[in-house]
């Protein structure tokens, strides 16, 4: 009991420190603040869609949590703690539904050209898990979707610069608030955030938000973006669900038409099992900022990358708790930084109309 009490006290202290750090944000408060992590986007111009690539220099220990009921993924079984490969070279997030999984082939080719990947003794085989979201209805040209060339270009564009947010990369065609149908949706996108503690521990998140539900501010409970009434105002699906006015077969809730995809990166040293535990805890960030989350129509997935470049010792519980916190922040940024596309308004459009 004493050890539990001490752990709770430590976690509370670190959370306070982390929040104060956030108030005086560093110059780079995005995923690329983690040493060894670079991020690149490629956004298609013919239709709002694209892909986002997260590269781990020298590889990173990977983990995964997959709680949505309609996932579209590649090579995620490798991340299970019982399986052999314990380091990954890149993570790919893409629009385009299952077609978008082809983007990982482009990233694999880019890594192979540089001699990177798992050394089999015969060749270096890049380990590139990927996950996709459905945005085929956005922009009216479903035949246009990210492919291997998109992945290659995104990998080529990856840098340590602060990550671009909003309607870019895998967030190009992302939308939220589809409980009343796609015609009442709002714009989702890419968001990212960082928590850096004075002791050197860093935990960051990047997320592509394409949720069935609304996005709410966890601190105030206010709806930031989501399903809209006929007059364009926010409907607040929490009220709709409690009133029983949402149809039993949700108009915007067909399986697989949504999905929030996230990556947590830390400079801490984690085992493969630890990395998956952090991903599972980070999933709480979705539940804080997306209502409802983990639905039958979402393929919600979170990856973890642990670079191990920090020599300090941190408890997995602390890292996971901070991961949930920073993931919620990233979800909020995804909708507040987005811009409207193809007639789908963004949160900033509602603000400007007031």
Task: Report a brief summary of the structure.
The chain is α+β, with helices and mostly antiparallel strands. The protein is built from 7 helices and 16 strands.
Top keywords for this entry?
three-stranded antiparallel sheet, alpha+beta, single chain, disordered N terminus, about 350 residues
Overall pLDDT level: 89
Which runs of at least 5 residues are low in confidence (pLDDT < 50)? 1-23
CATH fold-level topology: L-amino peptidase D-ALA esterase/amidase
Please state the second-level CATH architecture. 4-Layer Sandwich
Largest sheet: 9 strands, mixed
Strand portion, in percent? Answer: 15-25%
- How many β strands by DSSP? 16
Describe this structure in words.
The structure is a single chain. The chain has 354 residues and is α+β, with helices and mostly antiparallel strands. The protein has one domain: L-amino peptidase D-ALA esterase/amidase, CATH 3.60.70.12. 27% of the residues lie in helices and 24% in strands. It has helices at 2-23, 103-113, 148-157, 237-243, 272-289, 316-336, 347-353, and strands spanning 37-43, 50-66, 73-74, 87-94, 118-119, 124-125, 130-132, 175-176, 186-187, 189-196, 202-210, 214-216, 223-225, 259-266, 290-291, 301-306. The strands form four sheets. Strands 1, 2, 3, 4, 7, 10, 11, 14 and 16 form a nine-stranded mixed beta sheet that branches. The protein has a three-stranded antiparallel beta sheet with strand order 13-12-15.
